[in-house]
């Protein structure tokens, strides 16, 4: 470990930007004013608590969404109204003013197709001054999942604010819940903040239908202290050593030749498009070119599974229980960069991007295994010449399947060791490795990091612990939250 302690004097603080669980693709401003209602039409039925499904939703500038136009704007939130009125979603129901503060706020709407975003951007609590703006977001999915995001500026509820979901129509009060952490509930679940004790800022809440009219929920909160800066690890090219990538090249006879530590990696995937996935879900994504699958079929789209696979659209469902029998026998050809039981609704992000040579790239970025809080980052790169690269940036999982298969009852050639060296399938359209407790496809990297050992205060000194930054010819320490830029040319990689 390369560690140093640096004492810095704080004489100024740079302007910071908001952080937190806010999707930046906010869409179109609705022209909201204080105590206003805006209608938005969603391309899929939005399922409200209690099962009410509508395409037209009604967005209150005061931080809630209703299923019916009969429910007007309401700045005086109360549990009696929450239970007695129309079904509602309340990411942050309080007396909000989009045009207060510096007058830069509005409510935005964006129908992404796979989900819809409603964003109260740069709003203030009524009477709030310029500089008190914050952003709250709701995201709804076709399966009834609801996600709330709160940026780091989100204040404690000023009066008696409410967050949660309600079936409305006179539903009985189930009692308040503590929404931090996780839990399960019926169709109505809420937390009321009475003493300026909102602890949801800089985090997110996800409510997933349980199939019985209720919800399971989980929250992820980014704690503001201790102050830690880790240089952007997922965008870093894997370090040499154990196999960190596998290139599959068509051999001209229907099979593949494999090369460990070969192929293309997209180091800038987070500049691509975030794709909304829930647990055990799929999305059909356009390649932008024709691509030959292992069974010889030519496709221009692939269906991507949250559980680390891709296949021909419409022939497969999401599958969390990986097995060699399914790899060989399922009805579609399968590409499996790392097939395991992953849950992107509990953390991380799945990105679609374009590689440096125009490749189609999907990256599972920091996605945990189901029921855990671990982090797994890996990537699939498909090229127009039908070559395939699987990149392993940081894997914790030790039990998964990696490889390619023509499916439809393909003959099992036996497992290969993709880390030991090149593999030639001699025209065979199946090549794979199965891990039970011995994944060796990537080593978590030690990345440069800065940790503030004491909190910075203007006019005083504070200490930074600098770790895992070997070989650089210069060090740069940026106070605040600036835009990302690349310091690799001066010897600080992964920045």
Strand content: 35-45%
Tally of helical runs: 2
Structural class: mainly beta
Give the overall pLDDT as a whole number.
82
End-to-end CA span = 19 Å
Helix content: under 10%
- Using the alpha-carbon principal axes, give the shape: elongated
Instruction: Please outline the major beta sheet.
Output: 9 strands, antiparallel
Structural account:
By secondary structure, the chain is an all-beta fold. It is built from two helices and 33 strands. It is elongated, with a radius of gyration of 25 Å.
Short summary:
This protein is mainly β. It contains two helices and 33 strands.
What are the SSEs and their pairings?
Blueprint: E1 3-9, E2 28-29, E3 37-47, E4 53-60, E5 64-66, H1 79-84, E6 88-93, E7 96-97, E8 106-111, E9 116-125, E10 134-140, E11 146-150, E12 162-166, E13 182-185, E14 189-192, E15 203-209, E16 215-221, E17 228-230, E18 245-250, E19 256-260, E20 273-275, E21 282-292, E22 298-305, E23 309-311, H2 324-329, E24 334-339, E25 349-354, E26 360-367, E27 376-382, E28 388-394, E29 401-405, E30 423-424, E31 430-434, E32 449-452, E33 461-467
Antiparallel strand pairs: 1-33, 2-8, 3-4, 4-5, 5-6, 6-12, 7-9, 8-9, 9-10, 10-11, 11-15, 12-14, 13-16, 15-16, 17-32, 18-19, 18-28, 19-30, 20-25, 21-22, 22-23, 23-24, 24-29, 25-26, 26-27, 27-28, 29-31, 32-33
């Amino acid at each position: 470990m390369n560690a140093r302690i640096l004492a810095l004097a704080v004489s100024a603080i740079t302007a910071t930007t908001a952080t937190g669980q806010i999707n930046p693709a906010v869409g179109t401003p609705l022209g909201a004013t204080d105590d206003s209602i805006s209608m938005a039409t969603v391309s899929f039925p939005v399922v409200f608590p209690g099962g009410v499904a509508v395409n037209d939703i009604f967005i209150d500038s005061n931080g809630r969404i209703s299923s019916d136009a009969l429910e007007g704007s309401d700045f005086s939130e109360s549990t009696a109204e929450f239970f007695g009125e129309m079904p509602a979603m309340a990411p942050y129901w309080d007396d909000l003013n989009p045009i207060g503060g510096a007058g830069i706020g509005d409510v935005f709407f964006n129908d992404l197709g796979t989900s819809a975003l409603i964003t109260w951007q740069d709003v203030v609590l009524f009477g709030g001054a310029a500089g008190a703006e914050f952003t709250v977001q709701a995201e709804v999915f076709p399966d009834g999942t609801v996600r709330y995001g709160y940026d780091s500026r989100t204040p404690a509820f000023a009066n008696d604010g409410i967050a949660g979901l309600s079936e409305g129509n006179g539903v009985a009060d189930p009692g308040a819940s503590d929404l931090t952490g996780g839990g399960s509930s019926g169709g109505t679940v809420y937390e009321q903040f009475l003493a300026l004790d909102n602890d949801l800022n800089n985090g997110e809440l996800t409510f997933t239908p349980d199939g019985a009219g209720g919800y399971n929920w989980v929250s992820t909160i980014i704690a503001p202290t201790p102050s830690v800066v880790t240089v952007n690890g997922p965008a870093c090219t894997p370090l040499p050593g154990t196999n960190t990538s596998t290139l599959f090249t068509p051999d001209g006879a229907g099979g593949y030749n494999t090369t460990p530590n070969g192929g293309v990696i997209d180091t800038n995937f987070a500049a691509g498009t975030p794709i909304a996935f829930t647990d055990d879900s799929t999305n059909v994504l356009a390649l932008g070119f024709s691509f030959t699958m292992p069974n010889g079929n030519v496709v221009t789209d692939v269906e991507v599974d949250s559980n680390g696979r891709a296949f021909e659209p419409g022939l497969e469902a999401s599958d969390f229980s990986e097995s060699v029998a399914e790899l060989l026998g399922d009805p579609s050809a399968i590409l499996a960069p790392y097939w395991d039981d992953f849950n992107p609704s509990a953390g991380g992000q799945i990105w679609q991007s374009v590689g440096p040579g125009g490749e189609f790239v999907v990256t599972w970025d920091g996605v945990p295994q189901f029921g855990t809080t671990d982090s797994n980052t890996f990537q699939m790169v498909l090229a127009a010449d039908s070559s395939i690269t699987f990149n392993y940036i940081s894997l914790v999982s030790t039990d998964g399947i990696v490889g390619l298969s023509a499916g439809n009852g393909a003959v099992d050639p036996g497992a290969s060791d993709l880390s030991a060296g090149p593999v030639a399938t001699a025209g065979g359209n199946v090549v794979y490795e199965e891990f039970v407790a011995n994944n060796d496809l990537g080593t978590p990297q030690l990345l440069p990091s800065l940790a503030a050992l004491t909190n910075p205060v203007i006019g005083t000194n504070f200490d930074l612990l600098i770790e895992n930054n070997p070989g650089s010819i210069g060090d740069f320490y940026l106070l605040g939250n600036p835009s990302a830029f690349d310091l690799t040319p001066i010897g600080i990689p992964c920045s």
